[in-house]
Amino acid sequence: MKLLIPVLFVIIGISSFVSISSNTKKDNTVIAWKDTMMADREKYLKLYRDSISGKENEPAEAVFKNIKVLKGKSTEQVLSIMNSWGHALGVTCKFCHDLNDFASEKPRHFNQTREMFDMTNQLNREILANLKTFRQPVVMGCISCHNEMKEPPHDGPKVQGNGARPRPRN
Ligand code: HEC
Ligand code: HEC
After folding, report:
1. Of 21, 56, 97, 124, which has the fewest Cβ atoms less than 10 A away?
2. In CATH, what is the architecture of 30-146?
3. Ligand 1 pocket: which residues have CB below 6 Å?
4. Is the dihedral of CA 144, 150, 153, 154 positive or negative?
5. What SUPFAM superfamilies would the database entry show (predicted)?
6. What residue ranges do the domains of the chain occupy?
């Protein structure tokens, strides 16, 4: 018992030091979504952040080649949204992009994401905003359904592995 108290103090001391130092670290990073793909996404985000340096607040459509659904956002906002989409689905950039040409519409998930984006907006504007027995605003994001999975479960317990259901690929 006598030993327990000093030991506890040491443990508390170490853990508060660790949390203080990780807090200071967090302040220096731009956005830190925590998931296993974060490091890989950060690598590509950094490449793009360097390339748009000085143009962070310019409209994305004036700087990037293939902006449709995110017209009106700044380049920096588009990159943050990219990170949040990756986080919501638990994926990295290459799930939706050809890494040699980020403007390419060839990857299947690229245009699927545009449809999902429109669907989410429609849900929010036309359905959720009109729910009468709820306190507004009621809002859904990609993560509300995806919860870090590529495909949200829809029929019973969690789908296997990382959320991909066995199904024919089109
Ligand atoms: C869930 C799919 C998805 C993920 C994950 C994703 N993107 Fe995107 N990205 C898109 C879509 C869709 C667009 C087009 C947006 C539009 O139409 O306005 C886009 C557009 C872009 C553009 C503009 C390209 C151009 O020249 O027009 C860049 C740059 C970009 N993404 C970078 C990234 C980076 C970096 C990551 C990883 C951190 C990432 N994206 C993750 C779907 C995704
Ligand atoms: C209302 C629930 C819901 C919301 C909100 C939602 N999704 Fe989805 N998403 C789904 C479902 C369900 C599927 C699986 C469709 C299927 O059967 O292939 C899916 C599939 C996808 C796929 C294809 C994944 C694959 O492995 O084929 C992408 C990419 C995607 N969503 C991106 C997004 C993005 C980005 C957002 C936010 C802008 C979003 N979704 C918001 C329900 C949702």
Report:
1. 21
2. Orthogonal Bundle (1.10)
3. 41, 44-45, 48, 64-70, 82-83, 85-86, 89, 91, 93, 95-97, 102-103, 109-110, 113-114
4. positive
5. Multiheme cytochromes (SSF48695)
6. 30-146
